[in-house]
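STRUCTURE REQUEST FORM
Protein name: Acetylglucosamine transferase
Source organism: Actinobacillus indolicus
Requested output: structure tokens
Priority: standard
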Amino acid sequence: MQNVGKLNAILFISTCGIFVTACTPSSMSPVAQVEQKQTLPEPDKSNTIVKVKNQSIIKYQCDNKKIVTIEPDNTKKKAIHLTFAQTTHTLSSVVTKKSQKYSNIRWVWSEDFSGKWKLRDNRNKVLAENCVKK
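Status: completed
Returned output:
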């Protein structure tokens, strides 16, 4: 009798296992999932809109034929990108009573009373002076 009970238990467990595996969806092995290439649809390039910002670059001619290039920074209020000797720094506006002045930790770009600009470094060494718009 005990053998019949064990046999029924084994048959019941086997039948349940077959039903459970038959009802579950087939899954991919992890290796097959990694190897499967996922592709994203490419956007239609004919409908792409490209906005071009109106960039104004001002060039200044200084003594000793030095050139200083100024480009306004549209993301920050009253900031400029100043290029001198193939180096560009972002300078922020400084509040003054009568003239304009921009500075950062390295450079100071300031206007004197005659309307000419001067570029100095953080040690007050003049890098370019008597700069006028081209």
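Reviewer notes: The CA atoms of residues 2 and 117 lie 106 Å apart. The chain has a mean pLDDT of 81.
Form closed.
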